[in-house]
Amino acid sequence: MDESFRSNLNSVVKKSCKTKYRFYILVTSEDDFFEETKVQLESEGHTAVQPTEFFLGEDCHSSLLIILRNEDIAEHICEVPHLLELRKSPVVQFTGIDEPDDVVNLTHQELFTRGGFIMFDRAGLEHLNLCNIKKTSEVLQELSKTGKWKWMLHYRDSRWLKENARLSLEGKEKQNFLNCCQEAGILEVLPYHECDLMSRDGPDYLACLVRLQVQNISARYPVFITDTTAENAFGKKGILTMTFDSFLMYSPSLTRTA
Q: Where is the TASOR alpha/beta domain (predicted)?
């Protein structure tokens, strides 16, 4: 693109964007990059805030932009303060940048925009009958009307379900329905990875979900469905935990920000 044309286009874009917002930059080093980004945004009339100001005062309902350098996302995304609470808020947007002026020039990458994915722990899978699997599919299809949702299934769990399909009629019916879900793009069987090693008692769900939220960076919500008391550890990493019943009951709320 011709540089003079790009400059004129950026000028028009910036003039058209009169909305002022609060912003927070995740600083991961002493690189001048972060201060330059802050200066760029403040020069446009936007206001830098600290985590203690995210949800306080009259501005708690005004737009808040969480900014990360793209190269920091994989390693540092979970360091964003109050990540799970921010995901739940409809006034919060996340963005990734390569250059300090990316937000001003609207050349940034939008993160955690809409949709999400779910994962059951093994205990949850063991208690799923065909009726509950169908309910899960229906919920995901309904949620997907406002943003793509998927059910992520570990390879070892997929094999376990297939083995059960050979042992009982119910297992076969469940597997047949899951095959349909996979063909429809509702269910995704994850590639074989360290969680699937037979030498392990089971997947490291926390580490796996943290990795998946980076790999699916546009998904607003990662949801772990479990009956265990793991909420605090997962919540600190930005992951929502629910029981199966609460997922069915509260799933409509996941569309408000997704």
A: 18-112
Q: Considering the entire predicted model, what is its pTM? A: 0.85
Between 179 and 57, the more confident residue is 179
All structural domains of the chain with their residue ranges: 3-111, 116-255
For residues 149-171, one letter each, b for 16 or more C-beta atoms within 10 angstroms of the residue's C-beta and e for the rest, the string is: bbbbbbebbbeebeeebeeeeeb
CATH number of 116-255: 3.40.50.1010
Contact present, 189 and 175 (Cβ < 8 Å): no
215 CB-near residues (< 8 Å, 6+ apart): none
Q: Hey, what amino acid is at 52? A: T
Q: What is the DSSP string of 97-113?
A: ESSTTTTTTT-PEEES-
Instruction: Output the six-digit token pair for 71.
Output: 């190269």
